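Ops channel
N.P.: pipeline sanity check, posting one input/output pair.
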């Protein structure tokens, strides 16, 4: 029977086993990109304290390794997609016309003209 485990002498010499040797029959899982707090803060353009608070209140998806907090890029992108607001369906010109019509339809504020006696 053939073993997939390298000999101890190979490990001591610094020879690393190949991917097929180390995983045996298991399927290779694609590597997930993990970010720390400063990297995620730069990606989202927010302060690190904001990220820490979001972790504290469990607002943002995260992974904890003992005292370390890491964020998976795919989880963050999915989280952002769920919080994306739909865009406006009307054009800016249409919106400005509606505002102008609304202003013109309002009664004027201020003093009424004095009645002549």
């Amino acid at each position: 029977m053939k073993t997939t485990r390298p000999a101890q002498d190979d490990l001591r010499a610094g020879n690393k086993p190949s991917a097929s040797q180390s995983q045996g029959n298991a399927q290779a899982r694609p590597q997930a990109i993990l970010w720390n707090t400063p990297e995620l803060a730069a990606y989202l353009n927010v302060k690190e304290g904001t990220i820490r608070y979001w972790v504290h209140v469990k607002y943002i998806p995260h992974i904890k390794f003992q005292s370390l907090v890491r964020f998976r890029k795919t989880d963050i992108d999915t989280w952002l997609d769920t919080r994306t607001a739909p865009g406006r369906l009307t054009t800016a010109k249409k919106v400005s016309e509606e505002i102008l019509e609304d202003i013109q339809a309002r009664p004027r504020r201020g003093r009424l003209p004095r009645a002549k006696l």
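N.P.: looks fine end to end. The first helix runs from residue 8 to 12.
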